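Good morning,

Both structures are done.
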Amino acid sequence: MLIGLDCAEPSLVLERWRDELPTISGLMERGSYGRLTSVIPPITVPAWSCMMSSKTPGDLGVYGFRNRSDHTYDGGFIAMSTAIKEPRLWDYVTRAGGSSIVLSVPGCYPPKPLNGVMVGCFLTPSLDSKYTYPSALKDEIAEVVGEYLFDTKDFRTDDKEYLLRQVYEMTDRRFALAEHLLATKPWSLFAMVEMGPDRMHHGFWKYMDPEHRKHEPGNPYESAILDYHRHLDGLIGKLLEHADDDTVVFVCSDHGAKRLDGGIRINEWLRREGLLATLAEPNGVSSLRDVGVDWPRTTAWGEGGYYARVFLNVAGREPEGTIPPDEYEVVRDDLAARIAAIPDDAGDPIPTAVYKPEELYGEPQGVAPDLIVVFGDLLWRSVGTIGGDEGIQTLENDTGPDDANHAQDGLYVMAGSGIGATGRNDAHLLDIAPTVLELLDIEEPGGMRGASLLSAGR
């Protein structure tokens, strides 16, 4: 039984709030737990698919929600289930003759056939879409929970009461459906993901964290995130009633969360450095789509997000490339060093890490970014806008109010049949799938990147 909590933060769940969460702390006392180092980038898409396949983003060729499909300037794809070519846990269970319940695990829309049932993830466009396998399950869901909520309708909003209602309704309906499926469908693997912790962190972190630069002591939402976690812990307790003595239970997250100090406007920086040229002068804060890119005069461009993806405009690779292929590495190294030196809004250095994809993944599949940039140890995010009166640094997010960024470490708790009370043992996200396969007595295929947590010495 794998209960995924998107963005659950180990310093809160495993440490600060442990005594407030009796269900999770009970599992911790009976089993193994620790930080679960995520992949780079530590974001929902692709991290859950990496966890379920024990493959890196480079193996999957998926580097985020939106990806380049080729080296043109406008070819791209959204990372739906069709983008994931590697088998995931339920595929192995199906091949071994077992059955699975897969509920809202990111990377599962549109659903693919399996021995069992599958409900689409937060990328499902609407209830009108074909979001279940088998298709008849759709009517059953409507009878059980009414309107199933794949995600909150708008988690980057200033209407916090609306956001709270949305998150609680979404979570309650997901867990009600989970209980129904556990009670009525056969399963050797149950895997679900709840998006609520992620939405709460992005929406309410500044109200909780005194170190957040926008924190106001005594605000009415100081305990909102803790209250939600208490509620979630109670719902998990109800799911455990469906676990018998032979069941191993995992509670895990794909990444953690931390306060967001600000954003680095990567495209504005590139523009001011003379590396990105636009067809028109920005009229206030604009996107590259608004003004157009003058490709024959452009060396590099980037994308906003929890991390920055920077692409180089290489002659013979991009349609109007400007960088001679034999100068590619020199240009890339120089650009990496200059990006790493971008300071915060006070002019102080921030610990920015700039990676080449081949350093992270070996031979990355698909069209990987030329540089992967993690600003300020994830206390800063990437913002893609250009123009306006703001400088390179901004305290506002370009996609709406956001209090938190992702942290590199998620968490895991593992307890149940055959799992000793081994206490804290930190692990890697890629270790989860090999562990589950060993517990299910399914032979691990070659090529998995992680190692079972049950192995000697782990």
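Second structure follows.
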Amino acid sequence: MANIKSQIKRIGQNERRRERNKAVRSELKTRVKNAVTSQDEAAIRLALKRIDKAASQGVIHKNQAARRKSRLMHQLARVQD
């Protein structure tokens, strides 16, 4: 455990961020799964919105967000055929 006050604060900040990021990633997986299974337009829009929001918050990289959106749309196109 750190003895320096600023480092103790930094450890707490990192832990809170880790918990938030974990929750956001979990929600992303749920939204994408719901979009694929239901194929509802509202669910698809919500999944894409959550992916963009996670990228803007810095939870995932912008290129990863683009890749996830592309794969989601490709998967939905394959299911609709």
